[in-house]
Amino acid sequence: MANRLFGTNGVRGIINEDMTSELGLRLGKAIGEFFGGSVAIASDTRVSGDMIKSAVSAGLMAVGCRVLDLGTIPTPAIQYFVKTHDHVSGGVMITASHNPPEFNGIKCIAADGTELHRSDEEQIEGKYEEDVPCKPWSEVGTRDEVLGAADSYVDAIVSLVDTEKIRSANLVAVLDCANGASYYTAPLLLSKLNVRAITINANPQGEFPGHPSEPTEENLATLIEITKYANANIGIAHDGDADRTVFITDQGQFVSGDKSLALMAEMAVSKKGGGKVVTPVSSSSMVEDVVVRAGGEVIYTAVGSPVVARKMIDTDAIFGGEENGGLIFPEQQYCRDGAMTAAKMLEYIAKNGSLQDGIDSLPAYFTDKRKLECPAEKREALMEHLKGINASRRTDSTDGLKIIYPDGWALLRPSGTEQIFRIYSEAKDAETAEKRGAYYEDIVKDFLKTRKT
Fold it and tell me: CB under 8 Å to 238, separation ≥6 — which residues?
């Protein structure tokens, strides 16, 4: 049986330690053998992007594929390209999303623009183990540079929002691109929507000198300050590969991903007069509260955007997303889409007024998030231990262990992309959420200290 390479969002590792050119070449051959034909490839701005993209491209060509190099673009932009070009059999995105700059990754995209199903990843892993043989010299593939994918992607988004309403609102936005893949597409989108943009960290510098690429409140201190004092209508921040977006209100308040998910879900359900919304078990209860209030239904899944996207397809859902700012609008495509999220939030403000007022109208929940280093070999035993001590409580094992309390929940699960263990806790008041989070953090710490294997 092949060793597992793919995590929740592709294959990731530290450059020249886990993620090497040798791995890229061999995995490229496996991916090429799986897809065949023409394969699109792109990267975010990480300094190692060219190295890994070249290695994967060489592997693809070695087994006869035609490589279409789209350059440096957001992950949802290559997904949109693959989806809208019938002759393209699949895609490869070189990115490690929000991970630190020493990381990079390889993410595979199916012909319909979605991330590959786990069963397809297993086939690629099997081919990787076999080490696919190269084609003879007369059958090797080619590589072509393809221009315009970013512009086509932005134009598609503009066509799917109320552009007249947004343009006439004369909005002002402060835009933080994290020096990542949205450095070109995000300013272009705002320009096309007649939104005055004050941009920061909008240079393709893959060491992320402005701030780490994860768009947390701590990392976005400068964006928060500028949004507040510039009297802007909104602050917009993308992660490294721009499949996620988080927001700052006109009052300078950081908007958690749960809250933007809830606002967008409510808008989608209200517009349709009902419908299904798909989200992972890690999402706040406020999402279900507002969806049900608007006449819709929530379907829960395991954590991971591919899982959410495929459940949306299976259930004909009108909207979906994760609590980390990764929202999925099926009218555009079944994947997390940072630019589409930004455009839809601008539409919300143009139609409803202050983002702060919208956030203040949401049901009040408080979430405590923690993470601890956890070696992969201890995960299984740790989860069994946590299940044992919560045997008498109401639980949900859709993903990790979710303990249901009368006033909230706690979710305990290992990360799918890093050797860390996540502890999420939600309650109606901040003190209870924090205490519950601290309680489980102590249990996990004690277990990791005392258990050798």
Answer: 74, 176, 177, 178, 180, 181, 182, 186, 215, 244, 245, 338, 342
Q: Return the structure tokens found at 260.
A: 């933007």
Name the more confident of 407 and 346: 346
Q: Which CATH class is domain 366-450?
A: alpha beta
- Position 453 scores a pLDDT of 54
Strands across the sheet with 366-373, in order?
A: 366-373, 420-427, 408-414, 401-405, 395-396
- For the domain made up of 152-360, give the CATH fold: Alpha-D-Glucose-1,6-Bisphosphate; Chain A, domain 3 (3.40.120)
Instruction: Measure the CA–CA gap between 70 and 85, rounded to whole angstroms.
Output: 13
Least Cα distance to 175 among 155, 154, 151, 203 occurs for 203
- Backbone CA torsion sign across 83, 84, 90, 92: negative
DSSP 168: H
Query: Residues with catalytic annotation?
Result: 97
Q: Decide: 358 and 352 in contact? Cβ < 8 Å.
A: yes
Q: How far is CA 453 from the centre of its chain?
A: 32
Half-sphere exposure of 382 (CA within 13 A, CB side): 31
The encoded tokens of residue 430 equal: 């901040």
d(CA 446, CA 84) in angstroms, rounded, equals 51
Is domain 11-147 in CATH 3.40.120.10, yes or no? yes
Which stretches of 216-315 are DSSP H helices?
Answer: 221-229, 257-272, 285-293, 305-315
The closest alpha carbon to 234, from 263, 187, 197, belongs to 197
Q: How far apart are alpha carbons 428 and 431 in whole angstroms?
A: 9
Position 450 confidence tier, pLDDT thresholds 50, 70, 90: confident
> If 0-12 CB within 10 Å is exposed, 13-18 middle and 19+ buried, where does residue 196 land?
middle
pLDDT category at 9 given cuts 50, 70, 90 is confident
Helix (H) or strand (E) holding 117: none
Where in the chain is CATH 3.40.120.10? 11-147, 152-360
Query: Rounded CA gap, 448 and 453, in Å?
Result: 9
Checking phi first, is residue 189 left (phi over 0); if not, alpha (psi -120 to 50) or beta? alpha
> How does residue 229 score in pLDDT terms, banded at 50, 70 and 90?
very high
> What are the tens digits of pLDDT across the range 179-211?
999 999 999 999 999 999 999 999 999 999 999
Question: E strands within 158-259?
Answer: 172-176, 196-200, 234-238, 245-248, 254-255
Mean pLDDT of 11-15: 96
Partners of residue 174 on adjacent β-strands? 198, 235
